[in-house]
Amino acid sequence: MFSNYLIGLREGLEASLVVCILVAYLVKTENRDKLPPLWLGVGLAAAISLAFGAALEFGTSELTFQAQEAIGGGLSIVAVGLVTWMVFWMKRTARYLRAQLHGRLDAALALGTGALVTTAFLAVGREGLETSLFVWRSVHAAGEGSAPLIGVLLGLGTSVLLGWLFYRGALRINLSRFFTWTGAMLVVVAAGVLAYGVHDLQEAEFLPGLADKAFDISGTIPPDSWYGTLLKGTFNFQPDPTWLQVGVWVLYLVPALALFLAQGSGSPAQPAQAPSPESASDPADPAAEAQPGA
User: Fold this and answer.
1) What is the pTM of this model?
2) Which of 262, 253, 251 minimizes the C-alpha distance to 235?
3) What string of DSSP letters covers 140-208?
4) Which of 71, 130, 244, 291 could form a disulfide with 94 if both were Cys (CB 3.0 to 4.6 A apart)?
5) How far is CA 128 from each of CA 48, 58, 288, rounded to the nearest angstrom?
């Protein structure tokens, strides 16, 4: 449940910061009348993301077991690729995010209402689709009934609350450190999802080695025990992985985590705070602090 809460919190806060930047810029430039089209674009993006998640969940339910495992395994690899790209992209380019969004908003305001709706939709929709795919695979990997989904919803709810507090200037948070630590933990979660996807492909007979177990500690850590459930829900831990799963897990986790932690590690981090829209400074400035060493 914790890993899914982390996914909802991290992905949701990124989307919240994007919305915060867009809203704050319209307020600052005295374009409050353009807020309804902006919220329409955000709402459409959220609806499309939910529909995409529902299509993944219910669209595969009538397939054969092998087909389900093949699709699930393939989408696990895609989800891990997307979330890895997102984590590195956010850490590398967040310092330019505010300027990019402001430029897009200026262009959209010049073109009209439809362009503004499209800009908001695209800005939030990419985050939403990536989140839907990764959450779907992570929830299936955790396999704890409704607990993973509850964790995701709690994480999203927390991110919305933090985004609102951050926008109003009621919360002070070191975004650089937050995104570094949560990004590192997401890499660990992604490694578990990748190993789970490999296991799905082995069960679908797309990959060999299903019977070649690297180890089996099911007697020491029973999957149905509370600590086995906790480890599976947090790290997608499996007590009897195959050699291929272990190999893929190590080959992904070690270089990805090393590169992520090394990227920008030499810059000092400073705390960030979002002033309210009524203050003299730019309310969207703190979102620019999301980069390491801001």
Assistant:
1) 0.69
2) 253
3) HHH--TTHHHHHHHHHHHHHHHHHHHHHHT--EE-HHHHHHHHHHHHHHHHHHHHHHHHHHHHHTTSSS
4) 291
5) 8, 18, 20
Torsion region of 293: left, alpha or beta (phi above 0 gives left; psi -120 to 50 gives alpha): left
Q: Where are the alpha helices (DSSP H) in the chain?
A: 2-28, 35-59, 65-93, 97-111, 113-142, 147-168, 175-203, 226-235, 243-262
Single-letter amino acid code for the residue at 64: T
Three-state secondary-structure class, residue 273: strand
From first CA to last CA, the distance across the chain in angstroms is: 31
Q: What is the pLDDT along the chain (294 residues), one digit of tens a residue?
A: 666 777 778 778 878 888 888 888 888 888 888 888 889 988 998 899 888 888 877 777 777 888 888 888 888 898 888 888 888 877 776 666 677 778 888 888 888 888 888 888 887 887 788 778 877 777 766 665 566 677 778 888 888 888 888 777 766 666 667 777 878 888 888 888 898 889 989 988 889 988 898 988 888 887 777 677 667 766 677 888 899 999 999 999 999 999 988 875 544 444 444 444 444 344 344 444 433 333
237 vs 84: CA distance, rounded Å: 19
Structure tokens of 138? 């992570």
